[in-house]
Amino acid sequence: MKRLLIILLVLSVACIGYAQTIRNANNSTLATINPNGEVRNSNNSLIARISSNGDIRDSNNHLLAKLDGGTVRNTNNSVLGYINNDGTVRNSNNSVLGRVYDDGTVRNSNNSVIGYAKGVPMRYAALYFFFNLF
Fold first, then answer.
1. Which secondary structure element, helix H or strand E, spans residue 50, and what is its range?
2. What is the longest distance spanned by two Cα atoms in the chain?
3. How would DSSP label each residue in 45-109?
4. Rounded to the nearest 5°, which phi and psi values hold at 127?
5. What is the rounded distance in angstroms from the CA atom of residue 77 to the CA atom of residue 129?
6. How far apart are CA 131 and CA 121, in angstroms?
7. Is residue 94 assigned to a domain?
8. Is residue 7 part of a domain?
9. Which of 78, 109, 102, 108 is nearest to 92 (CA)?
10. Is the pTM value of this prediction over 0.70?
C-alpha cells in the first residue's frame, strides 16, 4: 500500500509539470498548453489546438489561423503578423506589438508586463497574448 501511494504521488507531481501555464500580469492562470498543443482555459475546457503543421484550430476543429514559420496567417491566408526568433511580435504593418522573453515574461509595446508564459514555447505564448486566437 505504501508503495502504491508513493507511485501515485510521483505520477501526480509529473502531471503537474506536463502542461505549461499562461498567466496574466497578476499571476492568475489564464490557460495551459500541453506538449500536444492542446490549449485549455482555466476551467480545463479545451479552447484550441496547435498542430505540428502550424494549424490552429478551435475546440470544434475549425481552422482559426496558421503559423507558417514565424508568420501568422488567417484562414484567408492574409498575414496577421510575425513572430521573430528573438521573441519580438509584430502586426501585419510591421509595428511592434510586444515581446516574449526567454524567461517567459511577456511585455507589450510600452514595455509593460502583460503576462507570463514560463516554459511555454515562445511562439505559442505570442499567439495567445498578441493575436487573440484562443
1. strand 46-50
2. 62
3. -EEEEE-TTSEEEETT--EEEEEETTEEEETTS-EEEEE-TTSEEEETT--EEEEE-TTSEEEET
4. -60, -40
5. 21
6. 15
7. yes
8. no
9. 78
10. yes
Domain count across the chain? 1
C-alpha 119/C-alpha 2 separation (Å) is: 33
Within a domain: 76: yes
Between the CA of residue 112 and those of 15, 36, 91, 107, what are the distances in Å?
A: 32, 30, 18, 5
Q: Name the nearest CA neighbour of 92 among 111, 109, 73.
A: 73
Q: Are 134 and 127 in contact (CB under 8 A)?
A: yes
Structural domain that includes position 58:
20-130
The confidence band for 59, taking pLDDT boundaries of 50, 70 and 90, is: very high
Instruction: Tell me the pLDDT tens digit for each residue of 84-95.
Output: 999 999 999 999
| C-alpha–C-alpha distance, residues 16 and 29, integer Å | 14
